[in-house]
Every structure is written in C-alpha cells, then in structure tokens.
Design brief:
It contains 9 helices and 4 strands; from the N terminus they run H-H-E-H-H-E-H-H-H-E-H-E-H. It has about 200 residues and is of the alpha+beta class. A 4-stranded antiparallel sheet has the order 1-2-4-3. Helix 1 (about 5-15) packs across helix 7 (about 115-140). It is globular, with a radius of gyration of 18 Å.
Length: about 200
C-alpha cells in the first residue's frame, strides 16, 4: 500500500469509523472540542475563507429546543448524545478575509461583495470544513453522528441568525451499545475515477 498514514490511524479515521447512533454518557470536554478544532482548522478552503461556525449545544434547555427540530428518528439520538454541535456556514465570512487572506485583502470586495456569491462559497467551503470536523472527532477517539434530518429553517431561527445557514447537526461522544448499523456498500475505484 502506498499510504504513509499508519494502518491503525487509517482504520480509526476511515475504515472502521461509522456514524454512531448510540453513545455512552461519558461527557465530551471543552478541551476535547478545542483540540479537535485546533487540528481541523488547518484543512484547506478557498481563499482560506474558513466559513464554518460551530454551535455547541450543552444545556438541557437548549437540547430540548433542538430536539424539537430534529426528524422523528433522530430525536432520541440527539436527546441522548453527550454533546451536540450545530454546524453552519457564516455568509458574512468575507469580513474576516483581510485577516485570513492577508496577501490579497481586497478579495473581500473583489469576489464576495454580493450576498449570493458569499452564500455559495460559504456553503461549499463550510461543508468541506464539516467533513474535516467529523474526521477530527474521530481523531480524538470519539464517535460522530452527523445528521441532516432536521428542520433547517427551524434550527436557523432557534439558534442562529439570517447570516448563518445550518448545514448539519453532529452528535458526539463515545459509542454506546449497538452504536453501528452494518456498513453500507461503497463504490469501487473504477466506478468513480476516469482518466482523460
């Protein structure tokens, strides 16, 4: 095999990792979340725009409000997970570009002065960062349960504002009993790669 990453790390991050559906009650600490972010913030985004925003749902009151916006099958998982994160795209990310893209601070106005351009860029690049976040959760030895079965507009109104677009909710913790569904099939290399 031509991968440099240790096989055990490959298993932890990809081959053995699954979407968790149950969790133990062991808490996820602020230090763990900080370590996850401090790793995944280095993942690339266009213009280094870094539009992902993370809302940690820790209080019982906030959790109850969130559960009401989850699809019926996702409600018990979200209610029981030790930590829940709402991942969203900041459509005003361009305000940070003079700091994040200092060699061309004009990018803020040249490319992202229009809201529609910002929304498209924010959604794409925050989705990339959401994938990095999930891998970071796995790298911390935790399990992630990302879900898009939710009332997006309800979550936005309840927890965010008009400048943020919710992308997904991620349950986080140590996997509990029967946490995994059987692995679904994957497409092979020859099914997805074309050489021209």
């Amino acid at each position: 095999m031509s991968l440099v990453l240790d096989p055990a790390a490959q298993d932890l991050l990809f081959r053995e990792a699954r979407t968790a559906n149950t969790f133990t009650d062991e808490p996820v600490t602020e230090e763990q979340v900080q370590a996850i972010y401090d790793l995944v913030k280095y993942g690339p985004t266009a213009f280094n725009q870094s539009p992902l925003r993370i809302t940690l749902v820790r209080s019982a009151e906030a959790r109850e409000r969130l559960v009401q916006h989850m699809a019926e099958g996702n409600q018990p998982k979200t209610a029981a997970a030790p930590l829940v994160a709402i991942l969203s795209a900041d459509n005003e990310f361009h305000e940070e570009l003079p700091t994040l893209f200092p060699h061309f601070p004009q990018a803020k106005d040249v490319f992202f002065s229009e809201r529609a351009a910002r929304e498209g860029a924010a959604t794409l690049n925050a989705a990339l960062q959401a994938a990095y976040f999930i891998i970071g959760v796995r790298a911390a030895g935790l399990a992630a349960g990302p879900m898009t079965g939710l009332d997006f507009e309800g979550v936005r109104k309840e927890f965010l504002d008009d400048d943020h677009t919710p992308l997904m909710v991620v349950n986080i913790g140590r996997p509990g009993p029967d946490a995994w569904f059987p692995r679904s099939p994957r497409l092979g290399y020859e099914d997805v790669v074309t050489t021209v």
